[in-house]
Automatic annotation (TrEMBL):
This is Alkylphosphonate utilization protein. Transmembrane segments: none annotated. InterPro entries: YjdM (IPR004624), YjdM_C (IPR013988), YjdM_N (IPR013987). Residues 47-113 form the Protein YjdM C-terminal domain. It holds the Pfam family YjdM. Residues 5-33 form the Protein YjdM N-terminal domain. Belongs to the YjdM family. It comes from the Bacteria.
């Protein structure tokens, strides 16, 4: 499976190619890092809580609904505070550690910013 390379940020050429850890545009000779390109994609990730507030890495949130924890007989109770969240791409877009539960992923629709 091949992944599509991004267009050149300077001239928008679609003919970019990889050269080691760099991306190169053959039309304008611009070179940039693939790591920088991926960082920009992560920066563009916009995650909103149940009230529509935009969440950021390091925010604290509160659970707004009792949630069953998969693989456990316990539930995550409404009002549980979660500190220092990390946003990730995917269905469960919050990565966090919760006291008494450990590392887990949450959906942003079940939390509110605190």
């Amino acid at each position: 499976m091949t992944t599509a390379l991004p267009n050149c940020p300077k001239c928008s050429s679609e003919y970019t190619y990889e050269d080691g850890s760099l991306l190169v545009c053959p039309e304008c000779a611009y070179e940039w890092s693939l790591i920088e390109e991926r960082a920009e994609v992560v920066d563009e990730l916009e995650v909103k809580d149940a009230n529509g507030n935009i969440l950021q890495d390091g925010d604290s949130v509160t659970v707004i609904k009792d949630l069953k924890v998969k693989g456990s007989s316990s539930t995550l109770k409404i009002g549980t505070k979660v500190k220092s969240i990390r946003l990730v791409d995917g269905d469960h877009n919050i990565d966090c550690k919760i006291d008494g539960f450990g590392a887990m992923k949450l959906k942003s629709e079940f939390v509110k910013k605190s």
